[in-house]
Amino acid sequence: MLKTYQYPKFPFVRPAELDSPQTRHVPVIVVGAGPVGLSAAIDLAQRNIPVVLLDEDDTVSIGSRGVCYAKRALEILDRYGVGERVVQKGVSWNVGRTFFRDEEVFRFNLVPEPDHHRPGMVNLQQYYLEEYLIDRARELPNIDLRWKSTVIGVTPGEDAVTVRVETPAGAYALSCDWLIAADGARSPIRRMLGLDIEGKIFMDRFLIADVVMKADFPPERWFWFDPPFHPGQSVLLHRQADDVWRIDFQLGWDADPEEEKKPERVIPRIRAMLGDDREFELEWVSVYTFQCRRMKRFNHGRVLFVGDSAHQVSPFGARGANSGIQDVDNLGWKLELVMQGKAPAALLDTYSDERTYAADENIRNSTRSTDFITPKGNVSKTFRNAVLGLARHHPFARGLVNSGRLSVPSFYVDSPLNTPDADAFAGRMVPGAPMDDAPVAAAGGGSPWLLPHFGQGFRLMIALDDAAALDAATAEGLAALRRGAIPVEPIVIAREGGAPGGIETLHDVKGRVRERYDLQPGTVYLVRPDQHVAARWRRFDPAAIEAALRRASGQRA
Amino acid sequence: MMITLEYNFREPRTRTFYGYEAGDAFYEALIEAHRDLDEEQSALVNARLVLLLANHVGDVDLLREAIRLAREDVVGG
Ligand SMILES: Cc1cc2nc3c(=O)[nH]c(=O)nc-3n(C[C@H](O)[C@H](O)[C@H](O)COP(=O)(O)OP(=O)(O)OC[C@H]3O[C@@H](n4cnc5c(N)ncnc54)[C@H](O)[C@@H]3O)c2cc1C
């Protein structure tokens, strides 16, 4: 029991399969209703694909785990219909402050650029995120969410995958075209299939404490290296919802986890940090070790691994759930195209290619952070302290201070789905880039931000000065793209005017779209359903767009 | 010429999208250079590294300034 949160308990419903001798077949089974499995179910259900979602438990994530949800994950959660609730309930922050011993050495701002809808980070207890996703999943009629349903066996096949599900009322079998394994770091499915996951464990332990207190500290991330109240180690302080504060104390490898969890040891540590007069109550304590590892491939025939089952990182950088949600964003549209027969199954290989690339980036960054935060050996420690000492005076050293490089999306620059630029462009919206947001005015109503107008399906963004000046030939070309087997919805970005034929028009009210995408009149961007850039040109060329669309959907160009 | 104290790390042959990547890559390589070395060997590697970089910089006035900044706060601090 927590003081600020009551864990919901979801009812087990006896499934009809228990009373039938036949094995039922469904299109998709998702195993695991953590943040990633829930996101996967919602993504597919929003594509009109029915999903059976199985979870062994009957509640949300227990205790203190994920805290920070990054801008990119929030943008995806917007598409899943829960972004606003997360932002409203959570604590938004952009500023991080870093202390060395008793002095502040450095601060950073996660969103140094103005005019983005979502903040750099929102802090929210993981159980709230899961609760909101569950609420959303229950709104979608084609999600069949089954609690107290443990997958105890999996049989992969050429044409189908069969799982054995154990429930309080007995066990049954269920088969599917596609199995999504979102069953967490220990992934029973990964183990049952005998698949490896490789990486390393960090020889350190961290005490994670949630405390309830009224404090008027600003909503910032505070990180201490070697502070007087916890000498020789690091400490991290985050504010979460409901006046709950999360404190992470590095303990070292030799600490005894059972001893360290006792309130009589934890409370003095927190007192030393907050001062004797600060009133607080202990909400949760646990001791963690962390590892960084990933599977070689994330797709194995008809079994697709997402989230922690496929990859794990140390928490410095908050790249766990954030990257799992991006896995799902990458997978959903590809699986839909394959299931519709509009793309070859090989498109799913690019799910693995792009997301293992992202996982490597996440592992690399969180490993570097961990090595900086918990230096092993005297030389590492000397360099670390030299950086922190120089950071007081010199900007270059501040750039080297690494207390966690916070979750940012990958640029899939090497992806086979990209069409390389043939024309010259400035800026970072290269093929493979995750779209930058910007303020817009939607002529036909709708969000005053760019990103919500993209996603779900392919989009073609075409830039004009005056949208009304769209010529007839281009309008006809756009209409044809819309009617294609894989439809591409056009969006005109203009300074003024409305495009003919009811084509969605957005006004670039602050000029940020032009600036961020290096737009000129006539510039065209083909954007994937996950809001990554597929291709771009300086002029509208239907044949080039068709070829890029074939390539971006895994067909031979 | 003045000593550069602004962040100046870059990897010209790799396209990076986040400012910290080049500096972090350097730092990783620096720590990696000491793997499996004993203290004496590590000190020697550091000394050799300083000498290599000093020669690359070349400008002795600049090096004197770097030496002064390196000692600052360490001595008597
Ligand atoms: C201390 C700590 C701090 C963290 N901080 C952050 C952070 O700030 N930001 C961030 O993004 N991430 C953070 N993370 C990581 C984050 O918690 C995980 O990445 C995230 O929970 C992974 O989600 P998932 O859905 O893949 O797996 P899980 O959340 O582990 O969910 C797996 C689900 O599968 C179910 N399951 C397992 N086996 C079976 C089975 N056989 N049959 C049916 N169901 C099964 C489980 O019941 C569970 O619900 C942190 C983690 C820790 C430990």
From TrEMBL, chain B:
- State the superkingdom: Bacteria
Q: Which Pfam families match?
A: DUF2783
Give the organism, scientific name.
Answer: Tepidiphilus baoligensis
Q: What is the name attached to this protein's record?
A: DUF2783 domain-containing protein
Which InterPro entries does its entry note? DUF2783 (IPR021233)
